[in-house]
Amino acid sequence: MTLPITPVSLKCIKPNCNPATASPLVLFCFNRNRLKASREVEFTDVPNCHLIKGIEAGAGDIDILPNGLAFFSVGLKFPGLHSFAPDKPGGILMMDLKEEKPRALELRISRDFNLASFNPHGISIFIDNDDTVYLFVVNHLEFKNTVEIFKFEEEENSLLHLKTIKHELLPSMNDITAVGPAHFYATNDHYFSDPFLKYLETYLNLHWSNVVYYSPNEVKVVAEGFDSANGIHISPDNKYIYVADTLAHEIHVLEKHPNMNLTQLKVLKLDTLVDNLSIDPSSGDIWVGCHPNGQKLFVYDPNNPPFSEVLRIQNILSEKPTVTTVYANNGSVLQGSSVASVYDGKLLIGTLFHRALYCEL
Predict the structure, then answer these.
(1) What is the pLDDT at residue 199?
(2) I need a surface site. Which of 187, 271, 296, 347 has the fewest CB within 10 A?
(3) Is residue 3 part of a domain?
(4) Percent of the chain's residues with pLDDT above 70
(5) Is 61 among the domain residues?
């Protein structure tokens, strides 16, 4: 999740915010409901959890291979978000969930890639017909948006950089779901790339955020009208695309057509700011990393840290999907949860800028 704002004084977040004394760049002066600024959380614990060693400054997104190898996008830095390691570049970590005591290890990346300015965000795995594993990474290189495509070389625990993609229809990428070796859907959390125009877009609640389909032969907008399109994922049967709209507190179900266009089937309303989505391939359940109170996320106070929340959504295509709170914490353990992924009875919870949890369900 990246909703850029500038540091603001707390008086601009209070209910009686006065527009005459507040800067127009204070995006959320009148948007306490969009931020769920009054919401508190009741603790919901998962037994058998521990913090993952080596993740100290965020694991914003997670994707898992069918063989249990989990990939973590770590170290995101973005305007308006706190960072515990502002001078350290980001990276990709891997954990083997089939090990008895799995550890997170940083993957080596080929020398031709610019590691010093690596700023990874959303990630997605694609497995080709020949079993080649491709890792797609949204990269904010000096606040310019690119998609980096890597080939995973398991024997060397390394990533071979294959390609950098940038396009005018991808001005403010957030997350990505791969559907081919150089094909993907990506969310733009804003229409504009210019920071000031992004601020204005959110302040005016323009709903110009969108989803773009990219292939080497065609690039097009396939869904639009979102408040802040964020996490995106494809269903196990490849028939549907799920999109999280953070400030609208919604998950959109979109049908995928042979020409790769999308049409909306339904919208699930929730009472939280939804971030990244993961799918349990065995059940089709959607796991969501959420921010119950966005004000705490964007106005960071170490004495009153942002909450964490994980939802499990079952049977989303049904008339009444089942929504369960699996985990909730007031920041005492985990701050700013952004993703939750499951594999064979194990749960991984990542955050935008804090720690990460490994749990056995």
Answers:
(1) 84
(2) 271
(3) no
(4) 91
(5) yes
In a domain, 4, yes or no: no
**How, if at all, do strands 108-109 and 158-165 pair?**
parallel
Number of domains in the chain: 1
| CATH code where residue 137 lies | 2.120.10.30
- Is 175 annotated in some ligand binding site? yes
- Tell whether 174 is in a known binding site: yes
Q: Which residues are catalytic?
A: 121
Residue type, 260: M
Contacts of 319 (CB under 8 A, 6+ apart): none
Neighbours of 313 (CB within 10 A): 20
1 pLDDT band (50/70/90 cuts)?
Answer: low
The helix or strand, by DSSP H or E, that contains position 115, with its residue range, turns out to be: none
- List the domain range (segments joined by +) for residue 129: 10-360
Question: What pLDDT is attached to residue 28?
Answer: 46
Neighbouring C-beta atoms of residue 140, cutoff 10 Å: 22
Q: Which among 241, 268, 246 is positioned nearest to 322, based on CA atoms? A: 268
112 is in an annotated binding site: no
The answer to whether residue 1 sits within a structural domain is no
Residue 79's pLDDT band, with cuts at 50, 70 and 90, is confident
